[in-house]
Design a protein that fits this description.
binds 5'-O-[(R)-(carboxyoxy)(hydroxy)phosphoryl]adenosine; binds zinc ion; 19% strand; Nucleotidyltransferase, domain 5; 2 domains; six-stranded mixed β-sheet; alpha/beta; 11 strands; 12 helices
Amino acid sequence: MEPLVLGIETSCDETAIGIVRGRTLLANEIASSVDEHARFGGVVPEIAARAHLEAMLPSIERAVKTANISLRDIDAVAVTAGPGLIGALLVGVASASGLAQGLGRPLYGVNHLASHISVDYLTHSDPLEPVIALLVSGGHSSLLQVDDITGSITKLGATMDDAAGEAFDKIARIMGVGFPGGPAIDALAKTGSATAIDFPRGLTTSNDWQTRPFDFSFSGLKTAVARYLESTPDYVRGDVAASFQEAVVDVLLLKALAACKQTGINSLVIAGGVAANSRLRHLAEQRCEKVGIQLRIPAPALCTDNGAMVAALGSLLVSAGRAPAANAFDADSSLPVTSINLR
Ligand code: KG4
Ligand code: ZN
């Protein structure tokens, strides 16, 4: 029988519980505190942690009911150990460890970023690895080589400043289109032209391609958009959103495909909240098809933070025979992506 795993995710503002059996998703419950943060224009850690405390038990109960299982049937508990907001992570880790101990089941402390990638296994059943992963979220933007999602991830490059999602959020804030900014810009961009304004593509000079081919930078783009808005009183909002989005998406894909080419790995997975972006998904399909690269992007609802991804990685760890966490462990707000399974 395939392992029944419950996953808990609390690294940011979603209290999310996922239940999987093997690679089959049984429940994916999400309670978000996003509305409580909206008026601050960003996630307030203290508010997020308190919201996790309130939402935890009802969310677990809902997930168990949806999955139509009994808590006693669970074979293992997995929880996001990091990276993320420390106070928020601690609520998840404490809850998961209490649950695992109470049930007498193993506890896995898993990496949030590796979870984003491993959720693809719930959608595609053929082997993922080896694969180049473009991981784009609100806190991270990295290019990774994944040889084994349960044991070997190598970092090829990362952002030097803002994460891709952070850039969306900041531009949305400047334009006053709401928080989180990604979905708002994505929608607004559909009303404008992606070629209206030629915004800069960070780290793409010939020197950059020599010295840091797989790193990203979005702060120059952010400044360029802010300057454009200031100096162009009659700007067209849709054009700004579409042209900004195109600059981000273009450079993400240029570098991801260059990583595939250099490593000789002809398979690409795009994961993290920004992978829900409609333009990124569309352009990735077009460009990958052109050069014969197999593309995998999880369904949009599985790209943004969720519990299914944590349960998915937990299930893969159990199936691979990886050891669970020895005892109580600490959450790590800056857990590196190479640390997949906390021991
Ligand atoms: O992975 P995620 O849910 O949380 C983190 O781990 O950070 O990613 C959240 C980020 C936010 O910055 C949000 O604006 C962005 O993903 N995002 C999007 C879209 N949906 C969410 N960015 C662009 N287009 C979208 N449709
Ligand atoms: Zn995330």
